[in-house]
Amino acid sequence: MTEIKRYDLEYSQLDSDRMRINVGPQHPSTHGVLRLEVEVDGEIVTEVVPHLGYLHRSFEKHCEKMTFPQIIPYIDRMDYISAMNNEWPYVMALEKMLDVKVPEKVEFIRVIVAELNRLANHQIAVATFGMDAGAFTPFLYYFRDRESIIWILERLSGARLLYNYFRVGGMAADIYPGFKEDCLEVVKKVRKTNEEIMDLLIHNNIFIKRTANVGVLTPEVAINFACSGPVLRGSGVKFDLRKDEPYSVYDRFDFDVPVGVGEVGVVGDCWNRNMVRMKEMEQSCRIIEQALEMMPEEGDVTGGVPRRIKPPKGEMYIRTENPKGELGFYLVTNGTDKPERLKARGPSFVNLSVIPEISKGYMFADLILILGSIDIVLGEVDR
Length: 383
Prior knowledge:
Blueprint: E1 19-23, E2 35-41, E3 44-51, H1 59-63, H2 68-76, H3 83-98, H4 104-132, H5 137-157, E4 166-167, E5 170-171, H6 179-202, H7 205-211, H8 219-224, H9 230-233, H10 241-244, H11 270-294, E6 314-322, E7 325-333, E8 339-345, H12 347-352, H13 355-359, H14 364-374, H15 378-382
Antiparallel strand pairs: 1-2, 2-3, 4-5, 6-7, 7-8
Helix pairs in contact: 2-3, 3-4, 4-5, 4-11, 4-14, 5-6, 6-11, 11-14
């Protein structure tokens, strides 16, 4: 096994004084308006303190002033890279409280658009991580293919990024003619480009030397910090809500849950977290193909949407497998058309909390890669 590139701070031979450096909040490597207060001993990181709140928009408090349907567009703005996935647990919570039966065709459409959005998310995650490591070409490849996905989602919803497509009991609109063919073409493109990226980036010797054995997150630490998604699975923990707590029609599909296996470096390092995302894209392609094959031709996707949404007094927590991890909404209702309380459990916020733990003892340059491997979006961190 290759030795982990971590330095024992207690026995550091450096005589230089420790100093504190601000990284961000306006810095491309922080992937948004995040400020990292970093203490270094020479070039070795001794402490990292993330400072949040630069993008805070009071989303949760704002929701208390809006009706339930009005909230959906604002949920898109949390993880604006995976807006389709954001809307899903929220409408599921209301459907369960209202005891609304969702048409089967709607369930399949939801799965397809969510997996398309997962592909788009992982493409950005791997592409921007490559840029953090000094590789620019994969970014161009992935953004070229991502445009095909965005084009499909735009034809469905009318928007390129913030879709407002899910509705309680249905969808905003039915699929368009040629939708299935477009999705299959995207799957074909994704698989071809992923083969190129595997050779160009993931198995590139320089990339491996920069990312293997860096930012090692052990399974025990990942679980203790409540990490989820590729961050957790990159540490070898096989947990995916689509498999372990199936929702919608995910129990009908045949797909695998990739985990870090230490193929290069050790389980839980930066390389393994990115490799998990690469493998998850193939599983999303498999799910899309099966869903397109099984989706009913007929079915009204808008007829089941209630005209007025007024759930009974109570509370509900629903969670789903967002591309970045477990996204959950805790909803408290008081019998009116507005929530009394809406609490979002964002995976980016939770996963970010592990940064101080897995950054100590590595080089300052490695800190940039460690942060990039977590795949955060600040709209979800600050909410």
